[in-house]
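Hi support team,

I submitted a single chain yesterday and got back a structure, but I'm not sure I'm reading the token output correctly. Could someone confirm the output below corresponds to the sequence I sent? I've pasted both exactly as they appear in my results page.

Thanks,
R.
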Amino acid sequence: MNVIVLFGFVLGALSAAATVILTKPRQSVTLDCGVRTYKNSLGWYHKDALIYEIEGNFVPRKGVMKDRSSVRHDNSLVISAVRNEDSGMFTCKADGVSHKHTLLVVSVSASPSEELQVGSNGTLQCEVKGLELDHPVEWKGPDGRKHTGSPNVLKTVTLSDAGTWQCGMSIGGVMYTEDLKIKVEEPAVTPPPDQDSKVNTETSCPNCGTGTTGGGGQLDWWMWAVAGAGCVVVVLLMVLVIILCRRIRRRKRKLQKKKNGRQSQGPKNYCQCNSRPAAAKAQRGRQKGRPSTLALKPLLKE
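Hi R., thanks for writing in. Yes, this is the structure output for that exact sequence:
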């Protein structure tokens, strides 16, 4: 009897012990049921909500996360695209025996970015969903120094802050951590201008940027005069070309009108038919030839 009671306490302790699993948002995570086979029923639950349940040979029932969860042949639960609200307690029940898992969704980040500059203010953020209040979160720097009291660390950045920071929490005597790599750069310093080079530049080119000529005075007036005269000549040439083109067009139009008037005053040529006259019809029968009137007249004598 004592053996049976002790065995029951062992089963209760095993079922009450929860495995802690860390993951990040938008990642996939696999939860092991703890058993490979079952006889009658198998079920997965998130807190009190049903995820997957099958009894005997019946068709499985699905509840929450049905679009992002699946159960493998080894009874493990796979969740894809993890969200913050997925954190918390998961329970796998196989033939009445429960196996619990605590899913923690951890988000670590640096503000304004993971590349900080020396002397600027940087904020390290560690957000853990699914963690109870009695489990504080602490940061550990690259030098091994701990920063407790707040999941956010605000400080002035130095070169010693470059490296891997760890956001950790202790659960059941086990330390769980999430890493964050920080890069620290020194601000770019612009060197002051060299005085010697400035003096050399001024002496070598005293008139640079002043718009003056080598003579020391302003731009010569005759250059402006030449430029203005050139513009006037170009304008006059354009006007002359336009006038000549118009006169040529007018002359062409007058010549065309005269040509058309001469053609209209000329005689009209009508179509004349030059075909030969039709041959006279031959008369039927013989007709005696009549003597020619010329033959009957007597010849005139000189």
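A quick pointer for reading it: The chain has four helices and 16 strands. Let us know if anything else looks off.

Best,
Support desk
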